[in-house]
Please model this.
Amino acid sequence: MREVAVKSVFRDPSELPAGPYPVVALGNFDGVHLGHQAILNTARKHAHEAGGRAFALTFDPPPAKVLFPAQAPPLITTPEDKLDLLTRIGLDGVLVMNFTRELSMLAPREFVRQYLAGAIGAHAVVVGRTVTFGHDRGGDAAAMVEFGREFGFTTTVVEPVAADRIEVSSSRIRELIAAGEVKRAALMLGRPHFLSGVVVKGRGRGRKIGFPTANLAAATECVPPDGVYAARVVVFGSAYPAIVNIGTRPTFDETERVIEAYIFDFAGDLYGLRVRLELVERVRGEKKFDSAGHLARQIAGDIEHAKKILAQV
Model:
């Protein structure tokens, strides 16, 4: 996994820069959604007011991927993208601990003693109300408050954030994405949900009907259902309006699921480049048409619909 900000990403507590009053925000932070941002910004504000430094402490692989791989939920962001989002919060660093079965066996108190109080020497810890940690997820927010009293650090418990009148959580965001409701998911993420990956060569179906597409080999696990989406393609530091089709191209009787983007007014070569597809809103579901010509006319209409959507965001 390529580290997006080498000077601020650390793999062991011993690598953290020395300094007064370290504040640690603890969590998995999948998606780095509005609830996570509240935790991280609380840590940052607390540390900077005290003249200290704020760090996020997270894990790779995520605990569920190690302990319950068959039941682990799909990740909203790739590990690389999570790091990118975390480093943009304005923290002084992100500590990514390697999660192993051995680490999972530590009792909650022992985890706090060894790492938060010991190796890191935290003066303050910030967690969400629903945090769990330690063996069998035996530690919670109340336990962290008690451990803080024992080991000499303060604990701030951040209450959940609401968006669209619903409590923000990674699980709820996954449900919205799985239902194709990417616009509502964006309200909880504080940004559009995006798919990232490398552009690969496709079969040239789009080019043959007048709409050349960039095919994405997505590394992101949370992919919404088949259909057409108003989107932006982020590449070279710029965002270009686009429509994205996710599906099997039923008009051509294909079975392989593909993710392809038609970028408006863009003629560059993207093959081999890593890009992000920001999914703004679902335009329609996937449909089989009786001819390539009929499909082309539908795509032209989809483009106009997508342009109207994108003009409002």
Observations:
- The chain has two domains: 10-163, 192-311.
- DSSP finds ten helices and 14 strands in the chain.
